[in-house]
Amino acid sequence: MDVPATYNLAYIWKISLVAALGGLLFGYDWVVIGGAKPFYEAFFGLTGDANAWKAGWAMSSALAGCLGGALLSGAVTDRIGRKKVLVGAAAMFTWSAVWTALSHSFDSFISARIIGGVGIGLASNVSPMYIAEVSPSEMRGRFVSLNQLTIVIGVLAAQIVNLLIYNARPVETDATVDVLLASWNGQCGWRWMFGAETIPAGLFFLLALMVPESPRWLLKQSRAEPARTILARIGGAEYAEAEVADIEATLEGERGRFDLRELRSPRLLKILGLGVFIAMFQQWCGINVIFNYAQEIFEAAGYDVGGMMFNIVITGVVNLAFTFVAIRTVDRWGRRPLMLLGSGGLMVTYAILGACYHFELEGIVVLAVVLAAIACYAMTLAPITWVLLSEIFPNRVRGAAMSLCVSALWIACFALTVTFKPINVHLGAAGTFWLYGAICLAGFLVIRAMVPETKGKSLEDIERALAGHDEMGK
Whole-model pTM? Predict the structure, then answer.
């Protein structure tokens, strides 16, 4: 792709990378708990069937914070701006990392995890939105995908940190709860797993203070001069004038305080419904059960604790590698083809994975199919969902609409997480993955019927097209 010489790519990369640090902390905070799970459960006495609900609450408590943060972001991003929400998310991550590492009671641990979840909810909304609003249209896909790349880097970083800390003083295979509790990992190691997040979280906080505000938000606030200055730094004076005129045209007659009831208008309700579906499908395609319940999945495939932890790192490496594929293809192949490839590919992969469990295949065969599913997800549904959500909503309502979609995403994630074990008990591993395959088939059909192609179009062009003023190809 030829990039106009007027674009200040170094500046665009710099501010986008800072915003994308929210994604890195999102990924780290989300996954670190998996490696710490055997040790904090022993420390807080969460083992055994009698404590199953408490153990589940410890694992999923951050989701309550995620939902709260996502809802909060809708109330504040359109009122106080994107930059301040980025700073607030960074503060939440830092606070949570320190508090979790120092927790000596179960209630304290839960409170700290909820605070971290609020940070995830804020970052998952505002980071891709901010990047979309500062990126030129022909490069927007790759820059918004950068947020997914940092999420994946955060996931892999958590997996590697967990493995390194565990290997510093490993416990014996099939260790009892008492042995886990008495071990260094059971007393201190799990704290370092959470506490290591303080370093990138503090860096994110400092750097977020230095990025500019979103020019589109500034124009919505009738602050044309600072918006023009930022846009000129991104693409030069002519680019700034053209962008200001285009954004002003879409905002004409729409300034003033936004009323949430406006989202109930037929035009916006249709777009919002599509966004909610895309967000929920990204979760109910089922891939996150592999990350959240990797221990159970790999144990069912015949791996011991050491093999399970090593395999988790391998899944992170594959996740990272294929996210680079998404960054390279999103502005070439387009959003719609990648979404169709992801839903169709996962449907086929889950059919094979279910067959592996049905015929009791173990070891490397199951690992290979799991890695294929992760690769398919990483280059399609994982990043493209965030790209589409940051593109399809009008300037005036983008913050509130994305907040509702991200809230729906976290509700779907919570439902997926809490239902996996009961579904797995009733349907077995084979039936569970066949069910997720059926959901992917339904997603494929909806995407083919309703999702438009948005590559190469400005946010304002997309707004006009979805409003019915222009045609947008499928």
Answer: 0.78
